[in-house]
TrEMBL record, chains A, B:
Keywords: DNA-binding, Transcription, Transcription regulation
Protein name in UniProt: TetR/AcrR family transcriptional regulator C-terminal domain-containing protein
GO biological process: negative regulation of DNA-templated transcription
Residue ranges annotated for the HTH tetR-type domain, each copy included: 10-70
GO MF annotations in UniProt: DNA-binding transcription factor activity; transcription cis-regulatory region binding
Gene3D superfamilies according to UniProt: Homeodomain-like, Tetracycline Repressor, domain 2
Portion annotated as DNA-binding: 33-52
InterPro entries named among the record's database cross-references: Homeodomain-like_sf (IPR009057), HTH-type_TetR-like_transc_reg (IPR050109), HTH_TetR (IPR001647), Repressor_TetR_C (IPR004111), Tet_transcr_reg_TetR-rel_C_sf (IPR036271)
Coiled-coil blocks: none
Family matches, as SUPFAM superfamilies: Homeodomain-like, Tetracyclin repressor-like, C-terminal domain
Cited PANTHER family: HTH-TYPE TRANSCRIPTIONAL REGULATOR RUTR, TRANSCRIPTIONAL REGULATORY PROTEIN
Species this chain originates from: Actinomadura barringtoniae
DNA sequence: ACCTGAACACCGTTCAAGT
DNA sequence: ACCTGAACACCGTTCAAGT
């Protein structure tokens, strides 16, 4: 009773996803267009549309494929607070490796199924520290905002740094800074660039976790 | 010695920015294209290009115009820790009102000059609590990650909610959740949607500030 | 100096037809 | 059932010419 009629398929969903990965890995997510993908497959854009509803669906499929093998799941310590910190750190580090993902991810507050491991461990650690289920979920969300914000801002900032030769908008603003209006910023002044270049993700994360888990 | 020759201008930079604002206010930032803008001006795309280098420059100009009049600057309390919280809250609330802005903003860790007020007050409050200049800048960045992350994720989530009729990806994931692998998430279960719909920005912010300022 | 029109090199997606 | 080709309705930007 199963498929008996019709033209035999030339491309399959796994092949499509694999081709999409090749494009993203070599040329970046911005270059992933339906046309470029079809070219990579030796096919036409519309052949792809027979397997996926639209480009968004393709991106979700791609996300899952990446998640499957890029998610770091380190051994977590017994101490519940430290478990929260290290789970969040692992979530962050996994996402940074495929940072184009956040542009897709932020569509929802929960990403693919593979990310549940992080959520579970963060919520569990928080509850083991004495938070209620409700508080633990709220704590997870605060952590997710922090992690996502850090990744997005860093990604954009480093893209700028790579592309731009002239001084950044920020540099100009600081150069023209009025010390009377903004004494603290004037005090920090030229060190701003240096200070914001430092990686302070984990210290910030620990502060957040400490604040969330009294 | 100044301009003597040449055709008289038909459109000015202020007019361009004003027209861009009309487009963004009525139809959203996604509809702001050079062609649509030209139409709004009763002109051609290339006339605009004579006044701005490219679309990015237009967006920065637009950002400044919005910032000038949308930035909330409430009276801040004397207590330095509370000053940090309320400055961050005001920064957040100002940005939410023009949330399309974050898509442009995140290009750098500092936005327009108008945002310096927030930065100054956050850094100042942190230093008044005993942090060094260096620590205060790092604290500001952690707060900015949190604020930016919250705005971006909320913006995207609400866009989805408006557009989509079918159940979200998240709902499907939770429905198929394996309680053995993820006991805590199974425990929270159906309440997830309800819990993540709550506005917990300020409690999260206070936790972060408390963690940053011992 | 400032503006116009046509064109280039792209997009995602729909539609009608082919095998 | 699956694929193709042409077309639609867009983009940002460049180029050559007009006033």
């Amino acid at each position: 009773m199963s498929s008996r009629t019709g033209r035999p398929p030339k491309i399959s969903l796994p092949e499509i996803v694999e081709a999409a990965r090749r494009v993203v890995d070599t040329d970046g997510v911005a270059k992933l267009t339906m046309r470029r993908l079809a070219q990579e497959l030796g096919s036409t854009p519309m052949a792809v549309y027979h397997h996926v509803r639209d480009k968004d669906e393709l991106l979700v499929l791609l996300l899952d494929a990446y998640a499957e093998e890029n998610m770091l799941k380190p051994e977590l310590p017994d101490d519940p607070r430290e478990r929260v910190v290290l789970a969040a750190r692992a979530m962050h580090d996994s996402l940074v490796r495929v940072s184009w993902v956040v542009e897709v991810i932020t569509a929802d507050d929960l990403m693919s199924e593979s990310a549940l491991w992080y959520v579970e461990n963060i919520v569990d650690g928080a509850m083991a520290c004495g938070l209620t289920a409700e508080q633990a979920v709220h704590a997870y969300r605060a952590i997710w905002y922090y992690v996502a914000g850090e990744i997005i801002i860093h990604r954009k900032a480093s893209r700028r740094r790579a592309a731009d030769d002239r001084p950044t908008y920020r540099d100009r603003v600081f150069a023209e800074l009025d010390g009377a209006d903004y004494p603290r910023l004037a005090e920090v002044g030229a060190r701003w660039g240096e200070l914001t270049a430092q990686d302070t993700f984990e210290t910030g994360l620990r502060a957040l976790v400490n604040g969330l888990i009294t």
